[in-house]
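Below: protein 1.
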Amino acid sequence: AGAAAAVDHTIDTINRDHALLHELLERQNYRLAFWRTARQDLGYRRFFDINTLIGLRTEHEQVFADIHELLFQWLGSNTEVDGVRVDHPDGLLDPEQYLTRLRERVPSGWIVVEKILMPDEHMRASWPVSGTTGYDFINQVMGLFIDPDSEETLTRFYGDFTGETRTFPDILREKKLQILRQVLGSDLNLLTSMLSNICERHPHHRDYTRQELHEALRELMVDFPVYRTYVRPRVGHVSEEDARVIAQVFQCVMTRRPNLGSDLLGFIRDILLLKIPGDLESDFVARFQQVTAPVMAKSAEDTAFYCYHRFIALNEVGGDPGRYGITVEQFHTWCQDMQRHWPNTMLATSTHDTKRSEDVRARLAVLSEMPARWIETVSAWSSNHTRCWGAHTPDHNFEYFLYQTLVGVWPLEEARAWPYFEKAMREAKVHTSWTDSQKDYEESIRSFVRSLYENEEFIQELDCFVEGLDTFGQQNSLAQTLIKLTAPGIPDFYQGAELWNFSLVDPDNRRPVDYDVRRWWLRELSELSPEAIWQRRKEGLPKLWLIQQGLRIRRERPQAFGHTGSYVPLYARGEQSTSVVSFMRGGEVIAIAPRLRLHAQGGWPHTVIDLPPGQWRQELDGRVFDSGACRLDEVLRPFPVGLLCKVG
């Protein structure tokens, strides 16, 4: 008790004497600073811009062992843990080293990495993993349901309605500059200091000013086309892909900013390509690669995606909002590549980090098939709601984003809507932000949203409009679910997505899930016919049932999937041949997934698919079809997708 009293007395004395308090703090191994200082001056590595999440040096063997101790206990015991999902591998000093160590401890386990691949980027073949966590699949499968014929029309309308005529790459570049200036400035400043120290060791380069080095590094990061490269300075390895990316970046900067000088840019390029050896150079290369990833993530996913609203269904992690859909042939090519190289990759359609759930995107995709009606509807809504802005200046870019959001998620109660819209406008960092909120602007949006929810006529119109999309959106969702169940890889089902799930970005997509309801429906499904299940689609039963049947087929016919299962594209013939994607797995399972359903809403007249030799049972209703030409209006009745298995 006496010791405690003495300690309390000392603390009280120090707290009342600023000089003593300052002296105590100066003795620590850190310096306290105003939180905004972290934007430009920070002495440690962190997770993105979150100051309280300090980076650990996982490359050190003891650190690796300590932070994985519990995980390895789980994996080494008789628990149900048999795999590892590695989040944010791009933040590691040497991802390949880390994954190799992990694989040594998990020799037969399933390891997938949350590697965000740009549209033309591929997973590193040298990584000892099963694949990614599925964001690449999300964007591939979503592209199937976007009608490319509407791109020009909707792009022109977006520019006319909002006044935003910049392309997504233009906006992304602007946001990278903003992030490097306002959010990750301390990381860029540290790299500048590291490069300055390197220059001091090279007489030919020591006269570059700090400003020149800072500007050159900034421009390189702005033009970086991928999250990061994986040069390994400790082992002296530069892959062909990394060399190509680095050469591309430097050529872009040289073309756009020749005033920076080829001498300086060439010097930095040679350091990154390990042509200039040294400990300082190696540390610089490693740190440079750890910075480009958060720059891309914060600029694209967390900022530009909230600014560019041409078609928000495309604004998804790992996606490119500037790319408007893919062809069936492109999808088949991607699947064949997965089967050859990553047959056990994860296939996701929703995750804890997706901007919108799979069912929201599936419904929004329908808008690409009806551009004229969508444009007419938005124009009418905006005209009718001019008065809702009151004395505030309308923000039509946000207004267009708002209408798309409401259509995609509806019904959406105002209590969920407002926190999301508040997050969206702050993430955009245009008129307001988390660290510099502008109350007048936010109140203008708040007032507009409130006025819409109080407008009964608008709510009725929105109800009616969404009702007209709903069936087509549900068909899209079932089609992408079927593809996920049967394409090369391991299907992943996010919590709550077993039924229709219309969720937005976190925290909206992390609401509690009622699993009792799902268990109850699973028991009820066995008593219902396919026709009855489809008629109960408002409750989400078709999706739950399709997942159940697809997983059953995977369990009964494992040889058709994984590394043993081949992937063979099948093509329809006839009037609606482009409105379906189909393929065969392992010679014994066929998936038939309709797409662009508005084009095929009149049915499938004179459209057939050629079934391979043998007899094929439609697993969703038990009917058997012979080989040869099979009419789609037969196989896709009464359920809107086809899952066929070879008989015998």
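Below: protein 2.
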Amino acid sequence: MMCFSEQQKEEIVHTGIQVIEFKRSIVKASQTAKEVIEIVRDMLLKLVDGISKSLQVIRQVYKNLHPKEKYKAVRRLDKCGFSEKEINLMVGGSYHCRNNC
């Protein structure tokens, strides 16, 4: 239920629309906005699912590569400008730093 003051009612009527029509248009706009948000949310969820599935396939293929082929990927990453730490995290899954204490 929407309540308008007398001043708001006069402004609405001054635009040439009745108050009840204005209220109906607000309700329709809010329903349409809810539908649009639901559609966008569903599309984003589908996009995230597709990306995660494709990343899983890439991860499985990469794990099945022979070490020589993995080393080629490491060299390519090195040429792209990644540091040794970043490459070890991507390829090996862990990075052990030295402690010189």
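The chain is about 75% helix and 0% strand.
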